[in-house]
Every structure is written in C-alpha cells, then in structure tokens.
Write a structure and sequence with these properties.
CATH architecture of the largest domain: 3-Layer(aba) Sandwich
Distance between the termini: 26 Å
Largest sheet: 6 strands, mixed
Oligomer: single chain
Strand order of the largest sheet: 1-7-16-4-2-3
CATH class of the largest domain: Alpha Beta
CATH topology of the largest domain: D-Maltodextrin-Binding Protein, domain 2
Shape: globular
Number of domains: 2
Number of helices: 20
Structural class: alpha/beta
Length: 421
C-alpha cells in the first residue's frame, strides 16, 4: 500500500496553505467535480468519506464524487474497459502491480512534479509509481509483510514465539507442530486462488535467494533456479497438512479462521491488525523468515492514478491528492485503514507514535520498510504473476512437483515477456 506526498520545506508549506484555501473552480462559479473510483470497503471507505468531508469544508471550489467503480481487486479490468470506451474517472485506486499496464494509456497523467514535491516517501513507495523513469501515479497505500502469530496457540503447543533471524525450515517445522487435526487447527494458511494474493508472499523468498522477478535483459524470468527451492517450502507445508488453503478471493476465509483461533501464524500486512484486534486475538508480530539470515520483505504499494479529463479536472484532482498525501491527512488514513505511514514525516507525528504505542507489533511492519522491495512495474508482470500463481496452487494441491510446476511457470511467463510492449 503506498501514497506519496508533496510540500517539502518552508516554501512547500506556504504552497500547501495556499492550496488548502482555494483550488480550481469553474468560470461559472460552480465547483469542479472530481470522480474517484476508490475500491475501498468497510473501514477504508469510512475513513475516506470522513477525509473527503473535511476536504469539502476547506475547498469549496472542488467536489469529490466517491461513487462508481468496483472493488480494488477488479479495478484493472474496470479501468481497462473505461479507457477503451473513452469514459473514465479522474482518479482510480490501482494496485502497484497493475500500474504499468494502465500507464500505457495516453490518458494517464504524468505526476512527476506532484510527487517530487513530496515529504520524502519511503523508497518502495516511490519505486512502485515510477514507470520508465516517469512518475505515473501518486502513492495511495503502503504496507510490508511480516508474520502474525496467535500467542495462545503457541503456548498450547509448548512453543516459544519465533524471533528475528528464523529460517523457512523453522517456519515449516513450527507450522507442523502447531497443527492439530483434532481441534481443526492449522499451523499456517495460504491463499489458493492462484491470483496475486497467492503470489506476492513468495517474492521475498526468491529475492533472499538472489533471484528476481524478471531476469537481466527482460526476456525471461529471474527465478528459474530459486523458484524450485521456494516451491519446495510450499510443498513441505502441504505435505505436512499444516497449511489451511483459502479458495476464496481476498483471503477472507483464511483471515476469519485466524481470527477464530484456528490458525497459528499467517504472513500478512498491517491492514489486518485492526480486525485481529477486534477479534480479541492475543498476537505477536515477527519478521519474515529467510534462507540467508538477511532481513528482506515485500512492500505492496497501491496508487492513486490520475486520468486526463481536461485541464480543469486534472488540476482539481491534483489539489485533492496533494492534500490527501500531506502527513496531517496521511496519519488519519494510516490509522483507520491499516496503512503504514508514507513518509518519515508522518511516522514522526504524535498521532502515529500514539498509534504505534497502542498497537502491538506495528513497529515490526514499519521497521521492515528499511529492507523492503517491490514488484517490478512492468507491463508483463500480471502474466508472470498468473504463471507463478498457477504453479503455487499446483504444488499446494499436490498436482505437480516443484520442478515440474516451475518449468510450466517459466514457459508461460517467458512467452509473455518476449512479446514487444
């Protein structure tokens, strides 16, 4: 999840004050309407609604329309169709992994200047919105991946909580010991839909082994060797019957099972902590395991992508996103929607420090940003992800060996990568 900001230094603050009190207005005196497809549900939508209400009070020349659109998981298809028809919103919430595909459209606004004026965003956030050296979106949400453990289940199994520096072999062994068929308890869980939710948990493992998503030259995958070893971890979890497989998009059942006390540990992001807390689970957060002992994780920044519906609406949309990315608003979004702060400036605010003090494990996710990497902003990434997702599910279900699954993955992914784009 990632958002990006603006306004650095005294000059930036003066500009921010000017933007806060005005903004584009129609020549007729009526407000400019900015249509946003936000993709949020529940808590995220509630926080966004409140922020928009505050924006309206200070920007009478702009009206934000949060109607329309679809859930974020289906945004790529919705936006692709909208661009083809020529009728699209001013702003859409686009996953970072989908940005390269969307950014090929000439209707996507270059926001390099807007983001360059930001408060100093975490490196993964900036990297995730940059396509071929141009900033094509404003960061919307920032996360990292760590392991959340159910402390009660660990205690019942007589196991100590994992510590930083643990290995993937430790993870498999711990999952096996936490599993209890009699009580319907699994050591861990994994999405089994084959989509990006299934895939992104594997990239830190591949990076740790020295691989990459796309190889040098961009004509083939960069994990032909490392992928087999990673899939062997997946195989070992499945062979031990220590992994709950969620067949539902969005991992809803997996998280429900964890929050009901039936899963010992799950690799997830900070967005899940509010629900885990509400469920009354006594939990701890620990860094991801590794093969090498070197800390590495993945950040999955999402974006606010702007589309050109004319100069007036573009200016209004930029004013809103500048306001939204400011630490004063960012900290409210982070607190309510489960995001990490987009910049150190937000992290240093008293409100975020209070949030950190009252939320066990949250600092682990923030600290992980120092060693986080992001998926490549490449137009063929969705095809690479789909190929790896198919391989993961095949191994989880025992339908293919790691070597065979990776061979099929490489064939499909490499075919996508050699297509000129």
């Amino acid at each position: 999840m990632d958002r990006r900001g603006f306004l650095r230094g005294a000059g930036g603050l003066a500009l921010g004050a000017a933007l806060a009190g005005c903004g584009p207005a129609r020549a007729t005196g009526g407000p400019v309407t900015v249509e946003i497809w936000h993709g949020q549900t529940d808590t995220g939508k509630k926080v966004l609604d409140a922020l928009v209400a505050d924006f309206h009070r200070t920007h009478p020349g702009i009206r934000i329309d949060l109607g329309g659109g679809v859930l974020a998981d289906a945004m790529l298809q919705k936006i692709t169709a909208a661009l083809a028809s020529g009728s699209f919103p001013d702003i859409a919430y686009v996953f970072g992994s989908d940005l390269a595909s969307v950014a090929r459209s000439p209707s996507v606004v270059d926001v390099t200047g807007l983001v360059d004026a930001g408060p100093g965003f975490w490196a993964p956030a900036r990297e995730a919105v940059t396509v071929n050296g141009r900033v094509r979106a404003v960061p919307a949400l920032l996360d990292s991946l760590a392991v959340v453990c159910n402390k009660e289940l660990f205690a019942n199994a007589g196991l100590p909580l994992p510590a930083a520096g643990w290995t993937w072999a430790d993870f498999v062994g711990t999952a096996r010991k936490l599993t209890d068929a009699g009580s319907g308890t699994f050591g861990t869980a994994w999405p089994a839909t084959g989509d990006e939710d299934t895939v992104w948990r594997l990239w830190p493992m591949i990076w740790d082994l020295g691989g990459d998503v796309i190889g040098a030259g961009g004509r083939g995958i960069g994990f032909a060797d490392q992928g087999v070893r990673v899939l062997e971890v997946v195989r070992d979890l499945a062979a031990a019957h220590a992994v709950y497989l969620d067949p539902k998009t969005g991992s809803e059942q997996m998280y429900q099972a964890f929050e009901a006390g039936h899963i010992g540990m799950v690799a997830t992001g900070p967005w899940q902590l509010p629900d885990i807390t509400d469920a009354g689970i006594d939990y701890a957060v620990v860094p991801l395991p590794s093969f090498s002992g070197r800390p590495v994780t993945i950040s999955g920044p999402d974006t606010w992508t702007l589309f050109d519906n004319g100069e007036e609406r573009v200016a209004a949309a930029q004013t809103f996103l500048s306001w939204l990315a400011d630490p004063a608003q960012d900290v409210r979004w982070d607190d309510g929607a489960g995001s990490l702060p987009l910049s150190r400036r937000t992290q240093q605010l008293p409100a975020w420090q209070e949030k950190t003090a009252e939320t066990p494990g949250l600092p682990v996710f923030v600290d992980a940003l120092e060693n986080a990497r992001v998926r490549p902003v490449h137009p063929a990434y969705p095809q690479v992800s789909q190929a790896l997702g198919t391989a993961i599910v095949a191994v989880l279900l025992g339908r293919a060996t790691p070597a065979d699954a990776l061979r099929d993955c490489a064939a499909a992914a490499n075919a996508a990568l050699i297509i000129p784009r």
